[in-house]
Each structure stands twice: as C-alpha cells, then as structure tokens.
Write a structure and sequence with these properties.
Immunoglobulin-like; Rossmann fold; five-stranded parallel sheet; elongated; six-stranded mixed sheet
Length: 478
C-alpha cells in the first residue's frame, strides 16, 4: 500500500479542525520543565483556542525529504479535508557539512512542490512556513540576513503555487529588531556560564529558542494564521501581549555606567585567560570568545578603546563564554578582557584578531589530477564556517559558493558525498588520464536524485511528481 492510499481523505464530521506541524528542531516539542530549550510548535495549541487540535510532528534534524519518507503517511492519517498542514523546513537542508541532510535549492523547492501536490489531492490546506529569524545583528545593530537562507525558496514556491505563506521569518525579525540585540537575546538559548541552573556550562545558540522565545513565536504563528483566514478569530482572553524579555543579569548599559568605578579598584588578580580566539587569528564576523578567569570572579568584561562591548558571567570553575551582540565588522580588531570580583578589577588581557566576511581556503590535497568516486580535500582555513570554494566548482550538480566541510579550528577536511565522474570527453577526464594537476575551477559533473524511500507506488501522482522533480533537477545539472 503506497503513501497515498494509506492516507485517503476522510470527512471531518463534527470534530474540531486539525493542524499538523511538519518542521525541524526550532519547532519541536521539548519537556515542559525545560526553560532553556523549547519549540514554538509545542505552544501553538495553547494559543489557537479550543476550535483547533494541533499535532506537532517537528523533530530534530528533520528535513523535507526525511519527513516525506518516514512521517508523512502517518501525519496524513490524522487529517481530513479543510484541515491544515504547516510545512516549516529549510534549516537543516542548508547544512553543507551534513550530506545526509543537505539539499540543493532546486531539490528543496521540488520537495515543497511535492508536498503541496500530495496535500491538495486530499483537500488538505498546505501552509508554507518560513524559518524563524536568527539572532544575527550586523555591526550597525540592525538584524542581518543569514547567508544561504532557504526562506527565499519557500516564499517563491508559495507564490508560484498559490499556497498560503506564513512568513514567520518576517514577523519574528520585526519582533527581534524592535527589542534590539541585547533584549532579543532573551528569546534564544543563550545563557552565560552559571547563569541558569538548567544550563550550568552556558551556551550560545543563536538559532534555537528558550521557552519565552518559543511562546512568543507561537503567538506570532497563531496571529499569522488568523490573518490568513485559516483560524477563527481568537477570544479576547486568548490573546496575550508579548512581554519584553529580561536582559542578562548584568546588561551592557549597566557595565558602561559602572566601568569607571570598577577600573579604579584593582583586585590584584591576574588577567583572565583567553582561549579563543588566539592572537592574530583571521576569523568570521560571528567570532566568539572563551576562556578562564581566576576563581571568585563574577564577570568578564570585553572592551575596545576603553568602551565596554559586553559582559559574560563566570562559572564556579572560572570558565566563561562571550559573544558580541552584533557581528564584527571586517577589518582588524583589538579587544581587552578583564575579570570582575568582589575585590575589584583584574589585570587586562589583550587580544588582537582580524575579521573577513569571506575567507578563502588554502587547499593542500588533492595535489594531482581528479579521480572518480568520493572526492576528499583537506587544507587550512581561518574561521569556523563552511569553506568558500571557487564559484565554478560544482557541488551536488549546481554551482555553489561553499563546499561542505567539518567546522571548528583552522583545519578542514571535506568529503564529497556523491560519486564524481568526469565526462569522457571533458577536459577534466583528459587531465585525469595524464595524471596532471587539475584546475579547481573545472566542473565535476555528477548526478543526484531525490530519494523517496521506495514507498510510493510507481503509478501514483506523488511518484510521477517526484520523477518530474528529479528530471527537472537533472536538467539543471543535478
């Protein structure tokens, strides 16, 4: 029995309207006691009133293709005509470091179209949901766009197919921008070391939400669905105003006001150790600081030209983590770090580093001509992000600005996830036969297909749609 016949549409009778959320970890259910990490999907049912039953099927590392193969059939069994199906993917598909998750933009759009076709055949209403905005503020303190964001593809498919778009990205971006970088941090899983008992080691996560942020985004989603006419108007008591989150225990403004006083009271303690970044490193705009301070220290302050940039709490063991509320501008930077304790201010530690928006890698392997099979590369690159590759390099059949790498540190190792087979008549094949060094700007044609797990009937409309989507992707070089 294929995925379509298993989930034939049933009349809704007199039951309440149902809504299924198919999305990734940002919407996934968490423990009700977990205040550090929460998904907006788990709170939506509390905000839509008693007229709609919400089934949250969001999951960690969940992608359009994984959900389609594994969970779509069971999700459809819960729905009937006029029920709602929210499709909120696009975070994991960007992960070029994860070949098991990554999809090219063409494949991602093809899968969204496939969902729309399957749902409409049953009279179920598809709703395409864009990603929640991240805490990424530019050097000018305005919310910045994230490179490689797949929400643009979600909006394109919604416009092309006439699907209701729930633009959570725009709504959440407006909310975070109104709050500003420091207060918006209060919506995310971003806690100093020792700040919260549920996260003693601290964490800096600018993607996932804490409970306050998840409830705020869920309210935006409920309001957006009502504005689209997909949910009934909310009873007055069900609409809860969005409260402003609290800043960290010691806000940047408080530090700036008190810095002159603190600086006049030396504690005699040694300068805090800065583990990362190392002196002279060339880093990414989102470069972060970690280190250790003397035991008994409460905070570390980061300063530039005697102006406080921010503060971070220090754990009982002296460890600390700090992330500038806004991205670093390109260029050279010098930061001074001091630790505060009851005795006063420690000696300063000074760190010099540079920031480049795009950092090219230095490839050390392969050193000679190409071969078939999995391509492996290694080399050095500063910065923690995906290694930029030449524009003319082809990854997953499309011209891509980045190549998947393992992040962290300065060394990288890349493994192509698919067979790379040069055409017999291509210059790369000739270079391979002569075992000469290959120019990295030459193309490596190979094919990638959309996997449907073999669960669709060969003659079903969904199979035909998947085949058409695959053929379209191949025609573009995938």
């Amino acid at each position: 029995m294929n995925i379509l016949s298993r989930a034939a549409a049933r009349p809704a009778a007199s039951r309440p309207q149902r809504l299924v959320i198919a999305a990734d970890s940002v919407a996934a259910d968490r423990s009700d006691a977990n205040e550090v990490l929460s998904g907006w999907g788990q709170h939506l049912g509390d905000l839509v009133g008693g007229t709609t039953d919400v089934f949250n099927r969001a999951g960690d590392s969940c992608t359009t293709h994984w959900f389609f193969r594994n969970w779509l059939a069971s999700a459809l069994e819960k729905l009937a005509e006029e029920d709602l199906f929210l499709i909120g993917f696009g975070v994991c598909e960007q992960a070029m470091t994860r070949p098991d998750l990554y999809l090219t933009p063409e494949e991602f759009r093809a899968y969204l179209c496939l969902y729309v076709d399957v749902l409409r055949e049953r009279g179920i209403v598809p709703v395409l949901v864009t990603q929640v905005a991240r805490h990424v503020f530019g050097p000018d303190s305005t919310l910045a766009a994230v490179a490689g964001d797949y929400s643009v593809h979600t909006r394109q498919v919604a416009a092309e197919r006439g699907v209701a778009p729930l633009n959570l990205q725009r709504m959440s971006a407006d909310l975070f921008a109104r709050q500003g970088a420091e207060y918006a941090r209060g919506y995310f899983r971003w806690f100093d070391v020792g700040q919260y008992p549920g996260c003693p080691d601290g964490i800096i996560d600018t993607l996932h939400l804490n409970r306050r942020g998840a409830r705020a985004v869920a309210q935006l989603a409920a309001d957006g669905l009502r504005a689209l006419g997909l949910l009934p108007a909310a009873p007055r008591q069900a609409v809860r105003p969005l409260t402003r989150p609290r800043p960290p225990v010691l806000s940047t403004e408080q530090c700036r006001q008190q810095w002159r006083t603190w600086s006049r009271t030396p504690s005699g303690q040694p300068a805090p150790e800065v583990v990362t970044p190392v002196q002279g490193v060339v880093g990414h705009p989102s470069l972060r600081f970690t280190g250790r301070a003397a035991r008994g220290s409460s905070y570390v302050l980061s300063l530039r030209d005697d102006q406080v940039l921010g503060a971070a709490g220090v754990g009982p063991d002296g460890s600390w983590k700090w992330h500038h509320l806004v991205n670093w501008a390109a260029g050279k930077h010098g930061v001074t770090v001091v630790a505060l304790s009851a005795q006063g201010c420690s000696a300063p530690a000074r760190v010099a580093f540079a920031v480049r928006a795009k950092v090219p890698p230095a490839s050390s392997f392969p050193t000679r001509g190409p071969s078939t099979g999995l391509l492996r590369c290694s080399g050095e690159r500063p910065g923690p992000e995906s290694t930029p590759w030449p524009r003319s390099a082809r990854c997953a059949g499309s011209d891509m600005p980045n190549w998947p790498t393992r992040s962290g540190g300065s060394a990288y190792r890349t493994t192509g996830c698919l067979d790379i087979t040069p055409s017999p008549s291509s210059p790369t094949a000739a270079a391979a036969s002569r075992n000469r060094p290959a120019c990295p700007s030459r193309s490596w044609p190979f094919r990638r297909t959309i996997g449907c797990g073999g669960r669709l009937g060969s003659g079903s409309p969904a199979r035909r749609a998947a085949t058409a989507a695959t053929s379209s992707a191949r025609s573009h070089g995938a």
